[in-house]
Amino acid sequence: MANDSVIVVGAGPVGVTTALVLAKRGMQVTVIEADSEPNMSPRAIVYLHPLLPDLDRLGILDDMRAKGHIDHEGFNMHLLLLDEVLSAPNTDIEALSPTPYNVHMGQGDFTRIVLDHLGRLDNVEVRWGARLTGLQQDAEGVTATVDAEGERHELHAGWLVGADGGRSAVRDLIGATLDGFTWEERFVATNLRYDFRSLGMRSSNLYVHPTLAAVIAQIDATGLWRCTFQESDALPEETVEERIHEYLHALLGEDVEYELIAYRPYRMHQRLASKLRDGRVLLAGDAAHLTNPTGGLGLTTGLYDVFALEEVLPAVAFGEADESALDRYAADRARVFSEVSSPQASFLKRLVYGGLDAAEVRELTGPLRETVATLEGRQTMLMGLDGVRSPSLLDAVASASEEGTHR
Q1: Full-model pTM
Q2: CB under 8 Å to 339, separation ≥6 — which residues?
Q3: How far, in Å, CA of 336 to CA of 330, rounded?
Q4: What span, in angstroms and rounded, lies between the C-alpha atoms of 32 and 162?
Q5: Which mean pLDDT values do the consecutive 10-residue runs of the chain (407 residues) have?
């Protein structure tokens, strides 16, 4: 089997973007997805500004801009008990970034854009309705057993990337555990049509309230918004739609009209796979790590996994780098999740959804208040969102090799 071939398991945003970057680097790519089409349910919607130059380099940013909502308003935290809004608009980094804005769009729409670009490449095949059921590997490559349309097939490639989400079959098949904890609460993501700007909302909002806390963001130019609130996981999921309307009436007013388009209840986790590499198999995105979405660091961290893989996997496959680069990938992406993504998302969840009183909110937001009080502070904060990016892993390998030579 060819060393420059790769199977990508999962056709969500991380999986299809992995396929695109590896195909553009000259690898032969086969994507397999258990579902029959892209998942369009309410999921991640915000693509933060430091990611956009990478997406532009892949040729998809213009399509995203045309389809999604361009967010120049950046970070906005509404502290209802303090009658205060802490903000850091993206316009503050116009002199520092080639893309001083975020793009909002449904995760399914993003996936479809990337799939369209994959369809233009002759070294990519996407197989829908193909479920991974077995996995073997040796020094030469990987063999994936796939069930599709009632038949079993074997696919062979030099490498395999598991980007098949929180319930990853790849992770299970390599014997990795998902370590960490699950929050006691449930999030409910809703897509609805309502003029949230009439309430003083901006493009993206953390709404800190003792009983009505939410993350509220504009999805597109048609009046579609996302409102994600929290409830006890002990409540029956089958009656969640009733509680959605109860919550929205409490938030918006009893007589206010809105149109509920879609909703999705889900559990929240802070979990990291016990290993992100097993020989010729690597994990990325939710297959590798899970975080609650407060702050938008789940999909963001997953896409940064992709750009780290883009650097190391083709280099190893084409004999330009030693396999130790893949160990660097696994170690550094685990570090980023443990030291950056998970702590930040956990802090924001506690602040937004913790039901805190005014004194607690004031204390927890003290450093943030100081940061957004100055232009320099706001710029540092916004540019710091790139902190979930790994440094060059090939440079790290080269440096380690040089140190060993000089000892």
Answers
A1: 0.95
A2: none
A3: 10
A4: 10
A5: 91 98 98 94 93 98 96 98 98 98 96 98 97 96 94 96 97 98 96 96 97 96 94 95 97 95 95 98 98 94 98 97 96 98 97 97 98 98 96 73 50
Q: What is the DSSP code string of 277-294?
A: EETTEEE-GGGTEE---T
Q: How many helices (H) and strands (E) does the chain have?
A: 13, 20
Tokens of 239: 């009656």
Q: Which of 243, 192, 182 minimizes the C-alpha distance to 217?
A: 192
Q: What's the one-letter identity of residue 174? A: I
Q: Which two tokens stand for residue 128?
A: 């829908």
| pLDDT at site 397 | 55
Please answer whether residues 279 and 137 qualify as being in contact, where contact means their C-beta atoms are separated by less than 8 angstroms.
yes
> What confidence score (pLDDT) does residue 405 get?
46
Strands 5-9 and 159-162: parallel
Classified as helix, coil or strand, 219 is: coil
- How confident is the model at residue 406, as a pLDDT? 44
Q: How far apart are CA 4 and CA 140, in angstroms?
A: 11
Between the two ends of the chain, the Cα-to-Cα distance in Å is 38
Query: What pLDDT is attached to residue 221?
Result: 83
Looking from the CA of 357 toward its CB, the CA atoms found within 13 Å total 1
Contacts with 48 (C-beta within 8 Å, 6 or more apart), sequence order: 102, 296, 300, 385
Q: Give me the pLDDT at residue 395, please.
A: 79
What pLDDT was estimated at residue 351?
97
Q: How far apart are CA 337 and CA 306, in angstroms?
A: 14
Q: Counting beta carbons within 10 angstroms of the beta carbon of residue 322, is it exposed (0 to 12), middle (13 to 18) or buried (19 or more)?
A: middle
Report residue 284 as tokens. 């990325």
Alpha-carbon span 374 to 372, nearest angstrom? 5
